[in-house]
Fold this sequence. Notes:
Blueprint: H1 14-33, E1 37-38, E2 44-46, H2 47-54, H3 59-64, E3 66-69, E4 75-78, H4 83-92, E5 104-113, E6 125-134, H5 139-155, E7 161-167, H6 171-185, H7 194-202, H8 205-208, H9 213-219, H10 231-246, E8 252-253, E9 265-273, E10 283-290, H11 294-297, E11 305-311, H12 312-323, E12 334-338, H13 344-356, E13 361-363, H14 370-379, E14 384-388, H15 390-395, E15 397-402, E16 408-412, H16 416-423
Parallel strand pairs: 1-5, 7-8, 12-13, 12-14
Antiparallel strand pairs: 2-4, 3-4, 5-6, 6-11, 7-9, 9-10, 10-11, 14-15, 15-16
Helix pairs in contact: 1-5, 5-10
Amino acid sequence: MKYQKPKGTADILPTQSAAWQYVEGVARKLFNQYRYHEIRTPMFENYEVFSRTSGETSDIVTKEMYDFNDKGGRHITLRPEGTAGVVRAFIENKLYGPEVQKPLKVYYMGPMFRYERPQSGRLREFHQIGVEAFGVDSPDLDVEVMAMAVDFLHRLGLSGLRIALNTLGDVESRKAYRQALIDFLTPYEAELSDDSKERLHKNPLRVLDSKDEHDQEIVKDAPSILDYLTPAAQEHFDQVKRLLDELGIEYEVDPNMVRGLDYYNHTIFEIMSNAQAFGGKWMTVCAGGRYNGLVEQLGGPETPGIGFGIGVERLLLILEAEQGNLPTDDQLDVYVVGIGAETDAATLRVVQALRQQGISADRDYLARKPKGQFKTASRLNARYTLTIGQQELANQTANLKEMATGTERQVSLADVEQHFNELLK
Ligand code: ATP
Ligand code: MG
């Protein structure tokens, strides 16, 4: 019996994890500068946390949830996205009190689970880096959140990104638009896909998000949400566009974009790349928007919110296609070469002493000849080698070689750590 990973999952191997850590490191640094703090919520939640928020007719709830009854009969779901769990935690931990500074800004990174048909950039276990900001309804915040996403992608060196922007208006705008959509779609009802037929009356906006090609043809001429905005919703949207212009962030308004989750209103956006990794097709790496009302939906006080999620696998596909090997700080400072079994204890002591000083150090464990050890040192891209042979052992010294220049000198074993502390400063 040969075991294989479950369909739609991936092993992130030691050769690949440096790229992940690089991306996560850039994110953590950026979020710190924007004053977002990390929140870690459980990987699974009660089913209702997602069914109440993502929307009964969304793909996520109808088809993609990993849910099961646990041994205590609780209906559990592996989280398909980050926002609902963060909102649940926000309410449960009363992060809305008067003593909490607004907006409350948090970020998260970790695995999400969706039962999907796996393909490039689409897995059943995938990872998101996301942010949420609670308690402020101002369009300034919408723009700052978008600008932060753009800043992140730029810091990673991505260019040629397309930003699609839309508004879903407020409750009143949505109500008027919903009716207009039903009126428009009803004559085509028989032609619609089964999913869309069902959604037509339950949640007609969902039809706009259909992946079915014929649905997409029909929807092309559908009325636009932009014609149904209340004055307040219009003003919010106009201000978002003005401020994006102010920051020099280019975007395209896409009135047919609705997003896959039901909880959005006002500003929604996606950032796309057409990197070669996706065969020239536009692929969304970052998606987000405003979700005023979501906190109330889960039983909390009326609190506006906005956030985005970035798909890390898709991001890495783009980065690798555009930049090849990503920068890493996986540098080996010193490779310690021991010649002869008698030097074993000395090499062990030196390697340990170096590591305790915060210097990265490695050695041979297979009693290999010096030639093999030097080969390994250069394969590992060591900055220095430190060689201990019989002669050195007798004198309590070691031969220090700088790999880039070939410069060699003798150093005393007693103060070898201080020596490297100086060299590597
Ligand atoms: P799509 O339309 O591609 O299915 P979505 O609307 O379901 O995307 P969101 O729920 O908005 O996606 O998730 C935000 C981001 O997470 C996406 O833009 C994408 O980068 C990533 N993502 C979503 N689902 C997957 C998946 N199954 N595998 C890998 N990444 C994913
Ligand atoms: Mg999806």
